[in-house]
Design brief:
- Helices cover about 35% and strands about 15% of the residues.
- Helix 7 packs across helix 11 and helix 12 packs across helix 15.
- The protein contains 25 helices and 26 strands.
- It is globular and about 75 Å long.
- Strands 3-4-2-1-5-6-7-8 form an eight-stranded mixed β-sheet, with helices on both faces. The chain has an eight-stranded mixed β-sheet with strand order 19-18-17-16-15-24-25-26, with helices on both faces.
- By secondary structure, the chain is α/β, with parallel strands linked by helices.
Length: about 750
């Protein structure tokens, strides 16, 4: 496969800011370069090319006038002229799109049989180009937004014609893309879904990678950079690195530092906010941010405590992380909202604990790496308290630092490249969906702690799945669709024929065009469903607390329970109000309210009827309370050995087999018991090297094996508690489905 990345706004391979040229996509350029190099290393990739705009600027020499540049390791950079040959900033590029698009299409046509099989468009302007390429040349495309304008508008309260036009372009990109890659759960399920054109079945959550920390890097460069600002270099260092834009909230971090009692006495603060010449330019966003930083330092008289250097070299960044780690410090991200938060992964690779914003992708990162805490930067007292507590507590900081080093190693660019390739292969040659009029059998399985929990067992299940061609494989999970996909990939498990997600309230089925949302099932559930009345009725219920907004779905209202008997109390309140709904309790403290017609069992029956399956042909597997109705209703059920006590009442039923093995091995044991299907590997026949991957092919098997090598094992390191040991908060929501 050949892949072409398109990104218009980046000055690849040079530091343009040093020449007075503003460029706010530096981190995204690094993302594209790292992703391209990782993809080029895969044996299944025949070439990777980055397409960007060609321009002429005497301040940068002749480099950007060259059409081709070899970036090494199988990656080529190709620059295409647009009508205006000058360097242009981001907003000024939009009028150049038509001429740039024609230039790109002409170039691709000239490649003949070496043209790319897939386009990856970065940002919405590049997606406009990709749409035109697909119309003319039939090449599918993946879209990565990186940063979405609706979120920026909502967080900053700013709006202007340029921003509204960008939102319109993003809406077209989301509507037209064959697949969308989101970095975080927040981006996949909240930010992208703000656009009416979004369809969740096209969205894939793939975390970007991070290279290992630079071995042997010392802190001398960083000390030299910060020493002019700081009186006592031996204090712990609070470090933040961010672009000088309003949503990064950097002046507010200085306020938080000053307002938190005792913090300035215990630690220094270093703010690395891009490069600057003058601070008086109020006409640019970066100028306003830099002025805000200087004014905040002056207002609180923080001279000698806060470092904010005007310039830094790329080599300084590794040294700064090293210095903060050596100085018993922490990394801080105080953004009003953050689409992902790559610096938090970078900090983790240096063993640096973090305090991060509770708004956006950092919640996912901290939840996966367990290397710090999230807090609301809008609440200065809470955010400052989280920083102070982590600085003060040597044991917690050491535990977070160890977790950072251990867990960050799994999130590398090779993993990203492999997951990207799995998505790409399904677009380049969409597999013909095996449409059995009546499948021989069907397996409906929970994911978490049923198919996952032991990496080798998950790999054995993947082997079995690829050897069983007459089976319909469905997952039935409490997770959302993007999270279910993310978890399956994380454990090297194959994508199923069908997803039953959000505790049986949504169904997505495979088709020749990819996954399709079952709207008929949704219409079926909507009858008699009154979620607004349910929320209003339970608003002041003392035994439950609403889960985060991201956990709420069209047909699911979710809470945490705080006391025993909460389910019975909620059922009574709903009954007294004449509201018909199902109330499901899982793991003692997750309470989901669904339409009366919903649930995993109802979804299984819905699927079985439409695939002309008898219940005797269905096998169900699970481990927790939200699997109860599925296991009780299915004629052939499996409870894995590691099940929770919530299923104890089912173990003696004649339709239930209690496996002697845990996790996926227990599922395989039960399948063999009920259906006689061998739970031993059945490798698929060798396929030609040129074959594109389809489910069950040799290449797909190789990808699963490779992913399994870096898939998440049980995380090392203790997860730091929330400040003050508080009850679960909305910011912790993305981790709540880990047990479903």
């Amino acid at each position: 496969m050949r892949i072409s990345h398109i990104a218009l706004g980046g000055c690849f391979r040079a530091p343009p800011v040093e020449y007075g040229i503003t460029e706010d996509t530096g981190g995204h350029i690094a993302y594209i370069m790292d992703a391209a190099h990782a993809q080029a290393q895969l044996s299944q990739i025949r070439g990777v090319e980055i397409l960007t705009r060609r321009f002429s600027d005497p301040r940068l020499g002749s480099r950007y006038e060259q059409m081709h540049e070899d970036l090494g390791h199988g990656v080529r950079l190709t620059r295409i002229w647009s009508e205006d040959h000058r360097y242009l900033e981001k907003d000024a590029l939009i009028p150049q799109l038509p001429s740039f698009t024609e230039g790109v299409i002409s170039y691709l046509e000239s490649l003949g049989d070496k043209r790319p099989d897939l386009i990856h468009a970065h940002f919405a302007d590049a997606a406009e180009v990709a749409i035109a390429i697909r119309e003319r040349l039939g090449i599918p495309f993946i879209y990565t937004a990186h940063s979405l304008a609706i979120d920026k508008r909502e967080v900053t309260g700013q709006t202007n014609p340029s921003l509204e036009a960008r939102i319109e372009r993003e809406g077209r990109a989301i509507a037209e893309a064959d697949a969308i890659i989101a970095s975080s759960r927040d981006e996949a399920e909240r930010q992208l879904m703000c656009y009416p054109s979004a369809r969740q079945e096209r969205i894939h959550r793939v975390m970007p990678g991070i290279g290992p920390c630079e071995k042997g890097c010392d802190s001398r460069r960083a000390r030299k950079l910060l020493q002019p600002f700081l009186r006592d270099m031996d204090k712990p260092l609070i470090l933040t690195i961010a672009r000088p834009v309003a949503k990064k909230n950097l002046p507010a971090l200085v306020d938080i530092y000053a307002e938190t009692p005792g913090l300035r006495e215990k630690a220094n603060l270093a703010v690395i906010a891009g490069l600057r010449d003058e601070i008086g330019d109020e006409t640019t966003e970066s100028g306003r941010v830099h002025r805000g930083l200087v004014e905040a330092v002056d207002r609180h008289n923080l001279y000698g405590c806060v470092a904010y250097p005007k310039k830094h070299e790329p080599e300084d960044i590794a040294s700064l992380y090293t210095l903060a780690s050596e100085a018993r410090g922490i990394f801080v991200n105080p953004a009003l909202t953050e689409p992902f938060g790559l610096t938090l992964l970078e900090a983790a690779s240096y063993g640096l604990p973090v305090v991060a914003t509770a708004h956006g992708g950092p919640v996912d990162i901290v939840d996966l790496l367990h290397h710090g805490v999230c807090a609301d930067p809008g609440d200065h007292k809470a955010f400052g308290g989280a920083i102070l507590e982590l600085i003060d507590d040597d044991q917690r900081r050491a535990e977070a630092a160890q977790a950072a080093r251990t867990n960050s190693a799994r999130w590398n660019w090779k993993r990203y490249a492999l997951e990207h390739l799995r998505i790409a292969n399904r677009l380049v040659r969409r597999p013909r969906v095996l449409r059995l009029a009546t499948p021989e059998m069907a397996l409906f399985s929970d994911i978490d702690n049923t198919l996952t929990g032991n990496l080798r067992a998950s790999a054995r299940f993947a082997d079995w799945r690829y050897g069983q061609r007459g089976w319909l494989f469905a997952v039935a999970t409490g997770r959302s669709l993007p999270e279910a996909r993310f978890t399956l990939s994380r454990w090297g498990l194959p994508e199923p024929d069908l997803f039953i997600s959000s505790v049986g309230s949504e169904i997505y089925r495979s088709s020749e065009e990819g996954l399709v949302f079952d709207s008929d099932y949704a219409d079926h559930l909507s009858q008699g469903w009154e979620p607004d009345r349910i929320r209003e009725l339970l608003r002041d219920c003392p035994v439950i607390v609403p889960q985060a907004d991201i956990e709420q779905r069209r047909f699911k209202v979710s809470y945490y329970t705080l006391t025993e008997g909460a389910r019975q109390q909620v059922c009574r309140l709903l009954s007294e109000a004449g509201l018909k709904a199902r109330v499901i309790l899982s793991h003692g403290n997750f309470l989901d309210i669904l339409p009366e017609r919903a649930g995993k069992a109802a979804a299984m029956r819905w699927v079985a009827e439409r695939r002309t399956l008898q219940m005797a042909q269905c096998v169900a597997a699970g481990d927790s309370g939200n699997d109860s109705d599925l296991l009780e209703s299915c004629h052939r059920s499996i409870i894995v050995r590691n099940h929770s006590a919530e299923l104890d009442h089912l173990v003696d039923l004649p339709n239930v087999y209690r496996s002697s093995k845990p996790f996926a091995d227990g599922v395989l044991e039960g399948v063999e018991r009920w259906a006689g299907a061998r739970a031993t590997p059945r490798r698929m026949p060798q396929a030609p090297a040129s074959e594109k991957a389809a489910p069950g092919s040799k290449l797909e098997r190789e990808l699963v094996d490779a992913l399994s090598a870096v898939a998440a094992a049980p995380e090392a390191g203790a997860k730091p508690k929330t400040p003050g040991g508080a009850a679960p908060k909305a910011a912790e929501g993305p981790g709540r489905r880990d047990l479903h």
